[in-house]
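Posting this for the archive.
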Amino acid sequence: MNETIGTNPYLVPVAVVIAGLLIAGAVVWNGNNPSTGGEGAPQGATVDISDVKTDGAPFIGDEDAPTTIAYWSDFQCPFCKQFEINTFPLIIDKYVDTGDVRIVFKDLQFLGPDSTTAGVYARAVWELYPSRYWPWREAMYEAQDEEHGGFGDEASIVALTKTISGIDATKVTQATKANKNTYETMLAADRAEAGSFGISATPSVIIDTQVIAGAQAYAVFEAAIEATL
């Protein structure tokens, strides 16, 4: 199952299909509005994790870990929720907590205004409370409901943020107001960068020189990570 989204002016046109690209359980970019049920696959030139811009991006893991994973997502994407709940804990337990892998979070927010709002709040949380970013992110995906089901507007995000210990929701909200343009520029940069790599689906990750798109089985990510260690 996929969803389709449209061509976006932020994305760089691409023509070469990434060899060996995997696609299943993803929201895919191929129309101006998201719709359910379409098939698609990211396209682009050969990728290399060393080309991904990671400075200032939220991350978990040892900053000097031997392997870096870049991960593009949308807080409204149901397949991202599936990936983060079912697969992420396994990757974290085996590779992140052991110091082997750092996961860098990149934005590909396209499922409407609430996606952008969530992305802006995520940037504020990271800037003010980096050590609490991961608990906040986990809570966001746990709270995700059906697309356009109501959760994800500013009021619900603020209410959720108030429940995360170690975060002052008032300060986070103030930061989103004061730095809205800066944060939205960061979101746009991540989206453009995704396009430059031919990434057109969420969730999508780059591991070494491979793009993996969709909520794939843990074994797929395990094999790609093991090849880098």
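Residues 1-23, 31-45 have pLDDT under 50 and may be disordered. The longest helix spans residues 180-196.
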